[in-house]
Amino acid sequence: MSAADLASSCHAATVAPQPRGQIRPATRSESRPPRLSVVIASINGREVLEPTLDALDAQTIRDEMEILVVEAVGGATRAHLAERLPVVRVIPVQERMSIPRLRALGGRAATGDVVAILEDHVAVVPGWAEAIVAAFERTDDPTLAAVGGPVLNGRRGWVDRAAFLTEYTPFLPPLQPRDPAAVPNLAGNNIAYRRAWLERHLDLLEQGRWESWINAAILRQGGRLEARDAAAVRHIKPFTLADFLTQRFWFCRSFAGMRRADQSPVVRLIHVAGSPLLPALLLARIARAVWIDKRPGHRADFLACLPLILLFLTVGAAGELVGYLWGTGGSLERVE
Question: What is the pTM of this model?
Fold first, then answer.
């Protein structure tokens, strides 16, 4: 089934409201577009999807939001969506697509002027939706293309803390730059786009590119990115050691393989030669973020998890080396 076919079928897959527990059903008029659309690619199952959706249901402007779940797990997870949610637009996918392609389906189907992209394992904090919407609505500046927020750690296991610092240290609060002219570094799992800007670049997601490619294209075209520390999410996916080692390798290979496609042979060779230096370079960046950039709350975790962080960075460097040498090799479809 094509992306267009799947996107057009989402109305037929809309799940009817089902009262349950304390969930407050949305009452937004169908004739009025939502202030915020939220796109979630569901690939990790009910254990993490349920708290992700709970946090969205608790937002004070939930009645003015639409949530689109591009569901690729099937089985009990898909059945649970039909049983539990008050209002949700479900786009069922039968084949295991890459996460960017799943997000592209949701982006095509979204109807709000602002379209947020979340992972299926992040719980938004109270006030997240208001912060996102307010950032766009406070200005008429059409160049404001994207707004994102920090990523917080929601798990306390040793592997979970090490995985979080390896992956998300660049997105710890405070994320808003002190210099208003500085370009913030926005996480791809907690970002919202003005729909007009997103639609220009959905083809990048359909090609399997991550949101960082969209953000780079926006900046080249004169668009702006903004960070809002109030628009934070909490990462809640649990990892075993084997899980994260595998995921780190596949993600880093996919990322390097995508970059390889745009590089000349000389640039590619430079990246191949530099791959062994990556663990030391990235570890220094993590240490700087934790120790120098005034994030003392993570110093104890950094010291306790240092051996695992080094292991994860080394495996990631191996993934990048393979990606620069041989391309993505199907790694993108393995990223969860």
Answer: 0.89
Considering just the CA atoms, what is the radius of gyration of the chain in Å? 20
Q: Tokens representing 274?
A: 């530099």
Q: Write the CB contacts of 96 (distance below 8 Å, at least 6 apart in sequence).
A: 43, 72, 333
Instruction: Give 232-266 pLDDT, tens digit per residue.
Output: 999 999 999 999 999 999 999 999 999 999 999 99
The CATH H-level (homologous superfamily) assignment of domain 3-149+186-235 is Spore Coat Polysaccharide Biosynthesis Protein SpsA; Chain A (3.90.550.10)
SS3 category, 257: helix
Peptide bond into 174 cis (omega under 30): yes
Residue 120 phi, psi dihedral angles, 5° rounding: -85, 10
CA angle, 126 then 128 then 131, to 5° = 125
**Bridge partners, residue 122, by sequence:** 235
| Regions of the chain short of the pLDDT cut 70 | 1-31, 84-86, 294
Domain ranges of the chain: 3-149+186-235, 241-334
Which phi and psi angles does 239 have, rounded to 5°? -125, 140
